[in-house]
Amino acid sequence: MSRDAENLTGKILIAMPGMADPRFARSVVLVCAHSDEGAMGLVLNRPLPEIDFGTLLEQLGIEADDAARPIEVRFGGPVEPGRGFVLHNVPEHGNDPEGRLRIGRALAMTTTRDILEDLAHGDGPESAVLALGYAGWGPGQLEQEMLDNGWLTGEGAEELIFGDDHDMKWHLALRAQGIDPSLLSSASGRA
């Protein structure tokens, strides 16, 4: 990433109305990692209601007990759809164990089985969602999509990350940037 480019880790991407890829139409994506090698993010507003967390635990051979909390399962993106990522809150200070990527001061993504076992027993983070798959961009690809008017960027908010009103997240994300969604056009251009 050039020195002039902004690191988007921890920011959200908001799909513009003219988004060419239908998998990302009206999507809100949390950027989990961004560097010269590319970017990785998780879609925040695509639930997978047909996949139950308890059933998923059973398939993984993890026995849940009565203390297990219901965890929402979401479509994280089209890359590696069988791979799971737990997006969760963390204490602002402290060490991050192996398998945990800190995204912001109090937000992380974990890919290890340990966190699923903790959640199955009512332990682990207070707020958590499980995303299957992720959104990925090669070197310079995300920056080019932004230049082509595919994405707006903004700040992530807990409601966008952990909230369950998925139909409104795109609108809420735009409004948080001071943009009225009804005024956006799907046409793009350059002056």
From TrEMBL:
One GO term describing the cellular component: cytosol
Classification via InterPro entries: AlgH-like (IPR003774)
Family the UniProt entry places it in: Belongs to the UPF0301 (AlgH) family.
Protein name, entry field: UPF0301 protein D3P05_23580
Organism: Paracoccus siganidrum
